[in-house]
Amino acid sequence: MARRKPRQKPTPRKTGARQLRLSAWLSHHLRVFIASLGHLTRNPMPTFMTSAVIAISLALPAGLYVALQNLSQLGAGWDDSTRISLYLDTRANMQQAEALAARLRLHKAIRRIDIIDKQAGFEQFKQISGFGDALQYLEDNPLPIVLTVQPLVTVEQTQALDRLLAELQNEKLVELAQLDMQWVKRLHAMLAIAQRAIWVIGALLALAVLLIVGNTIRLDIENRRAEIEVAKLIGASNAFVRRPFLYTGLWYGLLGGTLAWLLTRLALWLLAAPVQTLSQLYSSDFSLGGLGFGNTLSLLLIACALGLSGSWLAVGRHLDAIEPS
Amino acid sequence: MPQANNPDRSTLITFDHVSKRYPGGHEALSQVSFSIARGDMVYLTGHSGAGKSTLLKLIAIIERPSRGQVILDGVNLNNISNRNVPLIRRNIGIIFQNHHLLYDRPVFDNVAMPLVILGYRHREIQSRVRAALDQVGLLKKEKCDPITLSGGEQQRVGIARAIVHKPALLLADEPTGNLDPELSLEIMQLFARFNQVGTTVMIASHDLDLIAQIGAPVIRLQDGCLVHDDLAAGREQSAHG
User: Fold this and answer.
1) Could you say which of A180, A204, A227 is where a domain stops?
2) Minimal Cα distance from A28: which residue of B?
3) Are residues A221 and A260 in the same domain?
4) Which of A28, A225, A234, A322 to probe by mutation at the B interface, max B CB count within 10 Å?
């Protein structure tokens, strides 16, 4: 492309100058980026304390988020066990039941249907209820044929589930359509509340991080007042003066985010063994999940963004006020 | 002064009926008019409180005039927005009585500041800072902390920082205020050397003996009014003669 239209290329000298300026600008940014880290490491204790406060503020919502994710995962495991039991009219015979089952199997919201005939139901009832002996005295089997419907929709889609339930209830042959595992539904409702609560807590703590970084940067600006004045006197632009403080905020965010990640790892590690024991008691193979790569990345990005915005707030408020006199 | 008699050279600084009234009513400058040509070296004298510092601050846009206009290198400074003030200051080297050095970094870094702001590359910064330190005779002190230097040396670091980016104009506010006479003369001679290579120099000082020793034109202020201007007198003379 460039070879075919050599005349459209800017003159080499101009390009060279621009490239030089760009690379000088980039190397300046890189230098400020590194220098602001150096500035932080020269005062390790205050840096650590600020980062730790940021880390705790971030680790709390992150930890709650992980806990919630684990709970939902646990809940998701129960989705398969969501059943709607259709108790058919006691007068219905097996052929009618099979015809109904065949028809319902075509329904798009239904995954699977099992038929429990009167005899099987009776045996089951005898086993589970403990009335085994008493039942022997009954003249005939009072139990209806039961179709167990496994819906395709999950419990979270409450409306779809309710619609299916109503639809099944309206079947002529169905005496009673009953949704089992009502409590899974309730669990999911509670999880939804918890999720909302975590958002609120997370938002509040994010605000706290913003203020912590803002205040730290404000103090930093006060401490470096002389430097700022001199820089402005010898022709530093506002952007030039702002830059080290913005990078400092970014570093605080990154350090805080990394520490927060470590804290959540530590908490998970501490909880892993007791959770294992509990899930073994329930003979489940459930084990605690961590933040994962995507969420870790989000945590770090959010932390950096908060650090940067916090310092931006402080810089915007306090830096312009410092003018040489 | 031979330079002052040449009316063809362009003016670098023009004060046109400039007044400065500070909030509270104190009038630091009133109706001051003068002009300085490119390459001049001028002393600004007057007792303390006469308005010398204010005058210098108006040139560096550290203060803005209440009335009148300051024209620097053809640019009316009243038209410079706060955003563009740094661009003006980059062409000026400013030297203060109390040095304004940063004590948390070595001499080299202090002197390098203007070049860093201007975006010079590392290698060029090194050579230019060394050249500037060489000019003020402090080449061997580049790694020292400013606090370990004597008053005169600190002042020379300040001067090196002011000239390192080769500004067209050098402003000095009582640069010898804290120095003994011998050191003061040395510093003033340093300014004269910069002037010889083409830098316009404006020095505020109340030390009349010292000024007499150097022998440059003087602008004298009294209670904010201009009462004596060697440059204007020189121009008049050449016009009449």
Assistant:
1) A180
2) B119
3) yes
4) A234
Tokens found for residue A14: 């101009």
A266 and A283 share one domain: yes
Q: Any CB–CB contact under 8 A between A232 and chain B? A: yes
Looking at the structure, tell me whether residues A175 and A192 fall in a common domain. no
Q: Is the full-model pTM beyond 0.90?
A: no
Nearest to B94 among A20, A27, A233 (CB): A233
CB contact under 8 A, A235 and B100: no
Instruction: Please indicate whether, in this complex, the C-beta atoms of A234 and B90 are within 8 angstroms of each other.
Output: yes
Note whether residue A211 is domain-resident.
yes
Answer whether residue A323 is part of any domain.
no
ipTM: 0.85
Whether residue A192 sits in one domain with residue A171: no
pLDDT tens-digit profile, chain A (325 residues): 344 444 444 444 455 666 767 777 787 788 888 888 888 888 889 899 999 999 999 999 999 988 888 887 776 666 566 778 888 888 888 888 888 888 888 887 788 888 888 878 777 777 777 776 777 777 777 788 888 888 876 656 777 878 888 888 888 888 888 877 666 777 778 888 988 999 999 999 999 999 999 999 999 999 888 889 999 988 898 888 999 999 999 999 999 999 999 999 999 899 888 888 888 887 777 777 778 888 899 999 999 999 999 999 999 888 877 877 7
**Residues B217/B3, Cβ–Cβ less than 8 Å:** no
Full domain range(s) for residue A200? 29-77+187-318
How close B153 gets to chain A, by Cα (Å)? 18
**Same domain assignment for residues A171 and A191:** no
Tell whether A269 lies on the interface with B, counting CB pairs under 8 A.
no
The verdict on a CB contact (< 8 Å) between A236 and B119 is: no
Burial A30-59 (b: 16+ CB within 10 A, else e): eebbeebbebbeeeeeebeebbbbbbbbbb
Q: Which of B62, B113, B161 sits opposite A324 (nearest CB)?
A: B62
